[in-house]
Amino acid sequence: MGTVTFGVSSPEKADERVKAAFRGEPQGARIDFPSVESLFSVMTSARWELVRRMAGAGALTVEELARRLERDPDEVYADVRDLLSCGVLFSTEDRRIIFPFRSVHIDVTLEAAA
């Protein structure tokens, strides 16, 4: 696959995109977080590096990913588990991990505080 967009979206906006998709309007690949804070809380610098290494790499075991990242396998496993739970990574039938995109676009708008 090509590019996925990481963004911030309210449940209402996400629902609007789902309805538009059902009407046949292309939506593109997107992973939304409920707030800017949650995006940057989930996507730590170590997890960004993990995603960068996985982009276009195909399915990998956690052990192979840890070797490529030169990190402790238990720490990588914890990051993978969290990224699986929020839909950033996917698991194959043989328990390998995949990030099926070649690149990430970040779409975040920060507004003035009230």
TrEMBL record:
SUPFAM superfamilies (UniProt xref): Winged helix' DNA-binding domain (SSF46785)
InterPro entries: WH_DNA-bd_sf
Pfam (any one): HVO_A0114
UniProt protein name: Transcriptional regulator
